[in-house]
Amino acid sequence: MRKVYDRILDMRGNLIAVSAEGVRLGELAVIHKQDGTKTYATVLRFEGDIVTLQVFENTRGISTGDHVTFLNKQMQATYGSALLGRCFTGEGDPIDGGPKILGEMIDIGMPSFNPVKRIIPKEMVRTNIPMIDLFNCLVRSQKIPIFSIAGEPYNPLLMRIANQTDADVVIIGGMGLRFDDYQAFIENAENSGSRDKTVMFVHQATDPPVECLLVPDMSLACAEHFASDGKNVLVLLTDMTAFADAIKEIAITMDQIPSNRGYPGSLYSDLASRYEKAVDIDGSGSITIVAVTTMPGGDVTHPIPDNTGYITEGQYYLHDGAIDPFGSLSRLKQQVIGKVTREDHGEVANTMIRLYADSKKARERQAMGFKLSRWDEKLLRYSHLFEERMMNLDVNISLEEALDLGWRTMSECFLLEEIGIKKALADKYWPEEK
Q: Is residue 433 scored above 80 in pLDDT?
């Protein structure tokens, strides 16, 4: 039976408080305004019989005499194949001008998959981006952030991944997006032909904070059901810093005691409960999560990237318009390199990174005015080719093409005996002189 209360005790920001009994954390409520309209809220906290709710829209037009009805259910998303190609708000309402979605109603924010149903990751997710596929493979069921700062092309990078991935379904969760960023995602999906396998949940910067909190839960709830139906799902989230800032804003409004830099002590759990949805399901599909985390001031010790690093399985470090080979790491790449990829994959990746590290030292010697050796000159030539052919985010080639290009780049700059690569592999893959 639905419980109706006709007295709102307090309103602060997007929070209201009522005196109620028998309601549950996360339960959905509807507020019936005196002008005949209604809005929704969700239960955030209990203090005795005082229940604090977060209103999805702003509290404008709500009076203390409005009726609050508890619906005895959690926030739900609509699931079905009709989701594909559509764009929704954090509440799950269409914002693309299309009809309302009909399908199965599913609870959001549920526990992650039973570990018994999880299998060890062993498949690669292809992106056709050499700095990912060749040097730090994205592995199916991996959870990995893109650490960056405001102004870097992290959203275009996500768009490229969405366009070129071999995943069956791509779910994009946008948090705190400007309107032009939102439009760019829409236009990219249409122009690339990937819209038919893409679902978007979008919170714009002008929307209420609670909708920002709902975006990852909506995205991941639908991803879990697609994965249970045998689909390999790639979830792209941007920006988890906006998500954490929304948590902080609500916590401050609720007078919670702050932790590091004003964020609540639950920040780690709030992030982990979303990232841990990544899974490879035994006998079914998978969920892979790539999430942008912008670092305020480029500070990797900030609470958001700091907590993220403990939860996830590596990171892609995006700065100066490229993925940094030294700051990036995929902790699961050893699961696929040389096992499901070509035998020379590991040797090529390690040798090229080692040579690029040496070339950085040669650049330092050049900048300080030291006389360069012949080896330094070779390293400098190699560094320019490496950045042009591998680090440039416009490069769009398969892993096999990237491996061949890596061999050719090394052969153009060095003699075989200078780079210390395995002879058995060199005999097979080293380009013949023309």
A: no
Q: Do residues 269 and 259 lie in contact, with contact meaning Cβ atoms separated by under 8 Å?
A: no
Task: Using alpha carbons, select from 59, 70, 81, 90 the residue that is nearest to residue 26.
Answer: 70
The secondary element (H helix, E strand) that includes residue 45 is: strand 38-47
* Residue listed under structure tokens 């697609």: 226
- Rounded to 10 degrees, what is the CA torsion of 46, 48, 50, 55? 0
Q: In sequence order, which ranges of 65-208 are alpha helices (DSSP H)?
A: 130-133, 154-164, 179-192
| Burial 329-351, CB ≥16 within 10 A → b, else e | bbebbebbbeeebbebbbbbbeb
Q: What gap in Å lies between CA 307 and CA 16, rounded to an integer?
A: 30
The pLDDT value given to residue 314: 94
Q: Are residues 199 and 139 in the same domain?
A: yes
Q: 81 and 63, same structural domain? A: no
For residue 287, give the 3-state DSSP assignment.
Answer: strand
Q: Are residues 277 and 391 in the same domain?
A: no
Mean pLDDT across the stretch 377-397? 95
Q: Which two tokens stand for residue 12?
A: 């602060």
Closest-CA residue to 391 (of 377, 405, 371): 405
Report how far residue 22's alpha carbon sits from residue 49's, in angstroms, rounded to the nearest whole number: 9
CA atoms within 13 A on the CB side of 391: 21
Whether residue 239 has a cis bond before it, omega within 30° of 0: yes
We report the CATH number of the domain holding residue 164 as 3.40.50.12240
**Are residues 169 and 197 in contact, defined by beta-carbon separation less than 8 angstroms?**
yes
Task: Report the alpha-carbon distance of residue 261 to residue 301 in Å, rounded.
Answer: 11
pLDDT confidence of residue 313: 95
Bridge partners, 293 (sequence order) = 147
Of 246, 242, 222, 249, whose CA–CA distance to 234 is shortest? 222
- Pair 63, 93 in one domain: no
Q: Are 215 and 240 in contact (CB under 8 A)?
A: no
Domain range holding 110? 77-335
Which range has the worst mean pLDDT, 115-119, 122-126, 346-350, 424-428? 115-119
E-state strands within 180-328: 198-204, 232-238, 279-280, 286-294, 314-319, 322-323
Looking at 85-194, list the stretches that DSSP marks H as alpha helix, in order from N- to C-terminal side. 130-133, 154-164, 179-192
Q: In 10 A of CB 257, how many CB atoms?
A: 7
Q: Is the pLDDT of residue 242 over 90?
A: yes
